[in-house]
Structure formats: C-alpha cells, structure tokens
Amino acid sequence: MTLSVNDISQLFNRAGGELYGGEAITQREHALQAGWLAEQSGADEQLIIACLLHDLGHMLFGQGDDDLAQGRDDLHQVKIIPFLRGLLPPEIIEPIALHVDAKRYLCHVEPAYFAALSDASRTSLALQGGAMDAAAAQQFAARPHAACAIALRRCDDAAKVVGMTVPPYEYFLPRLLAIAETAGAQ
Ligand SMILES: [Fe+2]
Ligand SMILES: [Fe+2]
C-alpha cells in the first residue's frame, strides 16, 4: 500500500497537469510553488518535502471540482496518509495530515487570515468544518507537529500564483530520495 518515490514521480507526471480544484493553476504548479516557497522561507528539508507533497492525495485520488461543487469534503489530507507511512518520517507525514486543521486553526486565531483566503479555499473550509472554536484551537496548538503544519499551510495558501517561476519537480527529487532512504532504513 505504501507508495515508492517512483510512484510519486509518476503521479506528478500523470496527474500533476490537472487543475488544482477551483484555482487557475495545476496540481503540479501548486505543489512546486509550495515546496519552493518553503525553501525560500528557510524551512528545513523535511518541511520543504512536506509542502511539495501536501496535496498528493488530490493527485492519487483525483480532485474533483466535483467535490467542491457538490459540497463534499474529499478528506485528501487523511486518505493519503496510509500510502506515505513506511516511506516518509512523521516530520513530513504529520504536517500533511494536519494541513486542513491548520487552516481551521488559523481562521480562529487570525481574523485577517480568513479574509485573505481564496474563494475555493473558503468554500472547502465550510465543508471541512469551518473555523475551530477556542477549545479545538487550544488542542490543535498543543499537538507535536502543529507548528510545522501551520508553516506548511502558509506556503500552501501562497502557492496559488499564476505564472510563478519555480524549479521543476526534479529539483526536489534528490532530497525526497535521500529522506525516503533514511526513513526506510530506520
Ligand atoms: Fe490540501
Ligand atoms: Fe494545497
């Protein structure tokens, strides 16, 4: 059930050209922008790769505009996790699993954050349970990988720019391979 790095590369090739639901860029562009923005912000290698792969669930299962239009939460951040365990370390897996909750958290703690969300992201927020309440936000903030999930989320939100110049997937591949090799050896 676990994906290999080769499987991930094929997904980027095969499904990366599909539109990132509700936005004017492709899944591949969104992923590369997120990874690149993480690198530019000084993030460590693991967070860069987490950003690159955060929406792999959309590529593996297909992201419907359908889902948004039909009022369905596709749970892409949860459904991808079994496919990554065994390949990548928790420092990558957990922020990916928490990237939707990080949005719900930020909507609670930063009123300006919600106002800045894209239309598609606002629509999916409603399907994902809306902004957290104070108790849920407190619980989220106490989770071990919450800070990385929030950092990932900020790169995610900024990675929707039409025409941004970013390095190709192959630029990130050696780091993904190195991390997978290390995690696999543990
Ligand atoms: Fe996502
Ligand atoms: Fe995303």
Automatic annotation (TrEMBL):
Gene3D superfamilies: Hypothetical protein af1432. It comes from the Bacteria. Pfam families: HD. Residues 31-99 form the HD domain. InterPro entries: HD/PDEase_dom, HD_domain, OP_Dioxygenase. Transmembrane segments: none annotated. PANTHER family: HD DOMAIN-CONTAINING PROTEIN, PTHR40202. This is HD domain-containing protein. It comes from Paraherbaspirillum soli.
